[in-house]
Design brief:
single chain; two-stranded antiparallel sheet; membrane; SLC25A46; MCP_transmembrane; transmembrane helix
Length: 272
């Protein structure tokens, strides 16, 4: 990160941020439209059953399929080196995604995997991430609310303290859910990213040195071949390249949550 900031400027650390928001918007929009025109439920009520869960997960699968081309274009924009990348507009992600679908205007090689080959790993990662994060979030939230409820029985609380107890557990639950799902699925995410980038003539930064660029010259035939190749050529640790960045990300996330709680608790004490 220091080398990138020194050679390319701080802007290089934020590249692709706009396209990431666009993909989130496309995902939410696609989920809303599909749920409106189909009987697939967008939310699962407390009175759920296996059929309802299956329909809800089917909605998630269809949503990931629709957003996949734009996710692929956003990923390329995020990892493409600033040294050789032209200044692109904020809507370039949509243009590249549509071009990937119709096969026009997107430079690629014979190594580019067709979108049909990318559906399974993309949907698998998205659905597993959603399932794991949902389960972890509900478990952590249940534990924290039970702990908060017991503390309320032991002592009286002010309205501001009740507000803190109401919202902060949800923040902690979301944090734990994202952390667990990202850590558990990191190897699959590594495979997914390599499959999406292959054949797109992407030039990435050399993260070991910070000032060189490297072409993507992989020859994976699919998800299974990618897994076997990484395991044979790079070992198990090959699936965890870049994992240190995830540790830094969630360390900062935890620090922000803790600082927020300290500030709110200080304000709470001053108001009493």
């Amino acid at each position: 990160m220091y080398s990138f900031n020194k050679t390319q400027g701080p802007r290089a650390l934020w590249k692709g941020m706009g396209s990431t928001f666009i993909v989130q918007g496309v995902t939410l929009g696609a989920e809303g439209i599909i749920s409106e025109f189909t009987p697939l439920p967008r939310e699962v009520s407390h009175k759920w059953n296996p059929k309802l869960i299956g329909e809800h997960l089917l909605l998630k699968c269809l949503t990931y399929v629709v957003a996949m081309p734009f996710y692929s274009a956003s990923l390329i924009e995020t990892v493409q080196s600033e040294i050789i990348r032209d200044n692109t507009g904020i809507l370039e992600c949509i243009k590249e995604g549509i071009g990937r679908v119709i096969g026009l205007g997107v430079p690629h090689s014979k190594r580019l995997l067709p979108l049909l080959s990318l559906i399974f790993p993309t949907v698998l990662h998205g659905v597993l991430h959603y399932i794991i994060s949902s389960i972890i979030q509900k478990i952590v939230l249940l534990i924290l609310k039970r702990k908060t409820y017991n503390s309320h029985l032991a002592e009286s609380t002010s309205p501001m303290q009740s507000m803190l107890d109401a919202y902060f557990p949800e923040l902690i639950a979301n944090f734990a859910a994202s952390l667990c799902s990202d850590v558990i699925l990191y190897p699959l995410e590594t495979v997914l990213h390599r499959l999406h980038i292959q054949g797109t003539r992407t030039i990435i930064d050399n993260t070991d040195l910070g000032y060189e660029v490297l072409p993507i010259n992989t020859q994976y035939e699919g998800m299974r071949d990618c897994i076997n190749t990484i395991k044979q050529e790079e070992g198990v640790f090959g699936f965890y390249k870049g994992f240190g960045a995830v540790i830094i990300q969630y360390t900062l996330h935890a620090a922000i949550l803790q600082i927020t709680k300290i500030i709110y608790s200080t304000l709470l004490q001053n108001s009493i």
